[in-house]
Amino acid sequence: MSQVFPGDEATYIGYESVEREDIPELAAVDRKYLIVDFRFTDRQPAGDTLQAGVHKVCMTLLQNRELVRTLSDSGYDMVSVAFDRQSQFDCL
């Protein structure tokens, strides 16, 4: 993931696995998800640039079929992208 953006655009921070144990396993609501975390090196960009960044990360993840299969087999319902501590953007 550290290769998704050029070094001066955004930095890959890491990922976090979240499992909502307060949601029943058979509920139709996402229970287990992965947050892939990046930070922009300067400041948070405007809407179109931010949306393009989310798209770039999501497409990188989705094109890796083995990763998607592994996440699905491990029980993940969703993958989200974060560029700050306040917002997450869902990929799948």
Automatic annotation (TrEMBL):
Domain of life the protein comes from: Bacteria
Protein name: Uncharacterized protein
Organism field: Marinobacter halophilus
